[in-house]
Amino acid sequence: MTRVAFIDDHESVRLGLEAACLRAEAMNVAFSGSTVTEYVQWRALSRHPPADVVVLDLTLGDGTTVTENVRRLVLDGSSVIIHSVADRPAAVREALAAGAAGVVSKSSPIGDVIAAVRTVSRGEPLNNVEWASAVEGDRAFADAQLSARERDVLRLYAAGLPLKVVADRLGVAYSTAKENITRIRVKYVEVGRPAPTKIDLLHRAVEDGILVEPSADPGDSTRGR
């Protein structure tokens, strides 16, 4: 059962989403309110676990910013979907950079919102038209912003070396190299450029100038994981 919370300062929007959620299979409305502070207070008093997915209005009327709202919810343990009007791409980019899992336009059918909740609750990236619009043409945002160590790990791994060899060459533990690859994949998902396989990582490395040309056969998608 997926536990969903709706945070929007327009009651009519919340009521519509709640009704759709109640009609959906294996989905339960855990909370509905107008601010993130209300939600956090409810969590503290009720001792309920965090919602699996929070559908959050991009701009609330309590003076909070989208960055602080998204970060509070993500740190609390929930995935966040931004429910936004389509004409504020900069604010949507800010929400995604803060850790939101995706965005759904308020002009979309309610069924699309429910489908997005299901997608995010499964841990899958929400790569839709709204996401693409938010990042299109913004290279600073689309950049996964890898650390120097992550770039070194990606350069060797994407070039075809097994992860153990990558770890040995960089003088780090295998577990550290593996953790770096995991973080790299997460960062690429967060900017809408998922790289689930080793071949995908090779493509991202070439696109970002980390690897100019493959120096070896990168192997299949399972080698060196």
Automatic annotation (TrEMBL):
SUPFAM superfamilies in UniProt: C-terminal effector domain of the bipartite response regulators, CheY-like
Residue ranges of every copy of the Response regulatory domain listed in the record: 3-121
Protein name as annotated: Response regulator transcription factor
Keyword Phosphoprotein: yes
InterPro entries, per the entry: CheY-like_superfamily, Sig_transdc_resp-reg_C-effctor, Sig_transdc_resp-reg_receiver, Tscrpt_reg_LuxR_C, WalR-like
List of residues that carry 4-aspartylphosphate: D57
Keywords from the UniProt entry: DNA-binding, Phosphoprotein
PROSITE patterns, per the entry: RESPONSE_REGULATORY
